[in-house]
Each structure stands twice: as structure tokens, then as C-alpha cells.
Amino acid sequence: MDFGCHLIPCDHVIVKTRHSYVFTNIRPFLPMHILVSPISKKERLHELSSEETSDLFNTARIAMKALRSMCDGFTLSVQDGPCAGQSVHHVHVHIVPRIANDLERNDDIYEEGALDSASRPSRSYEEMKKEAMELREVFRHFFESESMYYEMDFE
User: Fold this and answer.
1) Per-residue pLDDT tens digits for 32-53
2) Neighbours of 149 (CB within 10 A)
3) pLDDT > 70? residue 155
4) What's the confidence (pLDDT) of residue 111?
5) Cα angle, residue 68 at apex, residues 97 and 57 outer, rounded to 5°
6) What distance in Å separates the CA atoms of residue 18 and residue 64, rounded to the nearest whole number?
7) What value does the mean pLDDT take over residues 125-146?
8) Contact predicate 56/19, CB 8 Å
9) Non-local CB neighbours of 90 within 8 Å, separated by 6+ positions
């Protein structure tokens, strides 16, 4: 899957819907920090069609339902444009699962550059593949119960 100038391997994709896909983050801010992006390569949110926008945020909503038993809440972020901190020129939603006291100062996640992954170490291909496979099993039930078109086999 194309993500700006990056290629997201199918092994790292958790779920794909008609217009969006969810994938593991190479440098997560906190555990299970995932990304949701439209399949179409569009840089800014306003460039998406109504159908793409609806699918993107509905996919994020269902992903959050799937993760909610593993956390206490979520921080969501869309950085729309370079001045807003967008470093990959492709629309994407950060879903960061949160648990009580996961940060020394809760608002550290909002500090300038906090979601910019350049300062964090990259995870291995295999680690990201393992997380994607585990999350596919969790996500399957939630996407099925919402009767939403999705794919989880990307061979």
C-alpha cells in the first residue's frame, strides 16, 4: 500500500476497507499506536471525497472499538499540512491507545513534534508483522459486527 513516498508492506496492514486501510506504526509513540489512511494518495483531508472521508473516520471508529478492551481511552490526531506537523504527505489518522499514567505528563503527547516519529527507534519488520497479525484477529469481529466491507487477507 502506498503511504506518501513510503510503501507499507501487506504484512503490516491490519485491515483494508473500501477506501481506507489500518496499519502498524514503525515508530509508535505508545504501544499499539496505529495509523488509518485513505487508499487514494491525497495529502490533505479536504481533498478526500465525502465517501472517502466517511470511510476513513468510520474505519478509525471501529478500530477504536476493537482496541478499547486494551486501554482506557484514545488520543486521535490528524496533522493536516506541514505547518500542523504532517511529515508524510498522505492523509492519515493517528490512533494512540492510552492508559492511566502512561505518560509522566498527560499533555506530553501534544508537545511540538511528539507524534513526529523521527526521534524514536524503528521497530523490526517482524515485530510489526506480528502486531498486525494479532490485531487482525481482534479487529475481525468488530468489522464483521458492523457489517462493513473489509479485507484481512492480502496475499
Assistant:
1) 999 999 999 999 999 999 999 9
2) 11
3) no
4) 80
5) 75
6) 18
7) 94
8) yes
9) 2, 3, 4, 37, 38, 41, 42, 43
Condensed to tens digits (0 to 9), the pLDDT of residues 76-113 reads: 999 999 999 898 999 999 999 999 999 988 888 888 77
DSSP string, 13-31: EEEEESSEEEEE-SS-SST
The set of catalytic residues is 92
Query: Which pLDDT value is given to residue 129?
Result: 97
Amino acid at residue number 4 = G
Question: At CA 22, angle to CA 17 and CA 26, rounded to 5?
Answer: 155
Share in percent of the chain as helix, strand, coil (round to 5): 40, 20, 40
Q: Which amino acid is at 136?
A: R
- Write out the E strands in the chain: 2-3, 6-7, 13-17, 20-24, 34-38, 73-77, 93-98, 150-151
* Cell numbers standing for residue 104: 509522566
